[in-house]
Amino acid sequence: MTFHLWFLLMLYQGFTIQHRLIGKFAAWTVFFLEIVYGITLILGLLSLKSPQDPINDPIFSILELLIILIAPLMVISMVAVHAYAIPEVKVYSLTALVLMILLAGITSSVHFVILTVSRQIQDAGLPGMPLFFSFKWPSVTYALDILAWDWFFALSMFFAAPVFRRGRLERMVQILMIVSGVLSLAGLIGVPLENMQVRMLGVLGYVGIASVVFLLLGMVFEHTEHQN
């Protein structure tokens, strides 16, 4: 065994074939679903008469379903990232994984409730229910979703970035993770301004840039498989 192969085996110790396969599948599926989400969102926005109007069905329900599908796949991708990380940076990858789990738990709960029972609850006519269950600012569900994507997703990207620092492809992943995190974090500006149009900066981060991040993640895992 050459020194180069021995070094690679030591470098990726613990990153098994199962990690590679499930990591590639999850990352590339996230990329595909994010592209579908982005296209659907653009179509929904173009259908509005005013930027302040909410997106209507069936586009709104499709977006909700896509988020429920994307969130757990992001967690699975981050599991693979943690396995891929060398020992010196596993504290960062583990933190990124925990933050992504928090994101998935919050956003999946929010969008499942909105998709299944929010309309029935609001139609019941109970006072104050739109402030809890409508996906229109201000509401509790909307605030929770902002917490998930503009905060926990951003932090997850920041903590995952140090894992990728070997070679041009990994450095590109690192840079785009930081850019995705910064833009997602910038979406929080819309909260004190009470302007959800500003929050589109966050959407650009966790949909637009993030889709490329997960595409490249799958390529990193694929490249690693060919090296071992």
Question: What is the topology?
Answer:
Layout: H1 3-11, H2 17-46, H3 59-84, H4 90-116, H5 118-123, H6 129-133, H7 140-160, H8 167-186, H9 190-193, H10 200-227
Structural write-up:
- This protein has 228 residues and is mostly helical.
- It has one domain.
- Helix content is 77%, strand content 0%.
- It has ten helices and no strands.
- The protein is elongated.
- The N and C termini lie close together (12 Å).
Query: How many β-strand runs?
Result: 0
Strand content: under 5%
Number of domains: 1
**Element-by-element helix/strand order:** HHHHHHHHHH
Instruction: Give the termini distance in whole angstroms.
Output: 12 Å
The geometry reads as: elongated
How is the main sheet built? none
Class of secondary structure makeup = mainly alpha
State the helix count.
10
Radius of gyration, in Å, reads 19 Å
Query: Overall mean pLDDT score?
Result: 87
Low-confidence stretches: 5-11
Explain briefly what this protein structure is.
By secondary structure, the chain is mainly alpha-helical. 77% of the residues lie in helices and 0% in strands.
Which tags fit this structure?
228 residues; 77% helix; elongated; mainly alpha
